[in-house]
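Could you help me review a protein record that somebody else here produced? This is what I was given.
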Amino acid sequence: MSFETFNLHPSLLRAVGDAGYTVATPIQERAIPVVLEGRDLQAAAQTGTGKTAAFALPLLHRLHETQPAPRGPRAPRVLVLVPTRELAAQVAEAFREYGRHVAQRTVLIFGGVSPKPQVQALAQGVDIIIATPGRLLDHLQMKLVDLSRIEVLVLDEADRMLDMGFIRPIRRLIASLPKQRQNLLFSATFSNEIRELARGILRDPQTIDVAPRNTPIELVDHRVYHVDTANKHPLLSRIISDGRGRQSLVFTRTKHGANRLAERLERDGLRCAAIHGNKSQGARTRALEDFKQGRIQVLVATDIAARGLDITELPHVVNFELPHVPEDYVHRIGRTGRAGRTGEAVSLVSRDERERLRAIEKMLGRPIPVAA
């Protein structure tokens, strides 16, 4: 289905064309009409399937078509809550890209940086707020942001926000919003906790599930290496070196482990950086940009990066350590196999991780092939 079918404003269609998109993805095809109708929506789709455009395009259309009469500074009308700084930046960039030919103002709000530019932007008036819950709640408590005219609330990657303990800030933010509003909940998975959250927020929602629950992207080739913990680093170094320069995103469970592994890979002659929650936002942004531009070959990350990294042609994801939660395996490998391209997911599994591997395979409904 082409984007013209949705009767979006010509300025939005122009921006979509500038971005090189012609045909809507399944989540866009099903979600955009629902959002345009003003209905509440709960939607599950795998990462890399175009969820952001599925709500950004119809919301930009709505804002442009229903611009209110001027009453002092512009008050925000759309609030998008996301779990991580990286995802916030990614969503904000999408809104700016799609809305480049319409006069909508967007502000990006998250922690780890000076709040002064955010406060200044809010004071000048904005239409769209894209935020992580904690920093936005800080602004709200200091009366630096007015959420009384929000027309649409979007919870993006809602399952991850619950995993990261944001349920209380989310509920406090929601309590400050108008009762009459449109609510959109997007998630990579629909756990029982997410369904419970949806029941408390959404009103008569349309439900869209474009992929079976917790199913990994089928374009990804999965492999497991059984290896002692002490031999993981030498094996990883060899796997990456044998890849002949292709980029690799490597996941560890801890921040300290990410730093240590990145240092060891650097000593092996690989261009490498680490990204995790203890890094400053500037350092995280630089590392991600260096990785995207090919200036570094390996990015070592904790699970905070599993949702917020958008690298279209990333060919290779490695689980240096398996995640504690089986669903996080899906989120990690969702960084590859995006936009119709194939990818590879490799897991290095030590003896003490075999129970985690069995839990992942049970969730997937099939065993992961063991590498020869």
Observations:
- The chain has two domains: 3-209, 220-364.
- The chain has a mean pLDDT of 86.
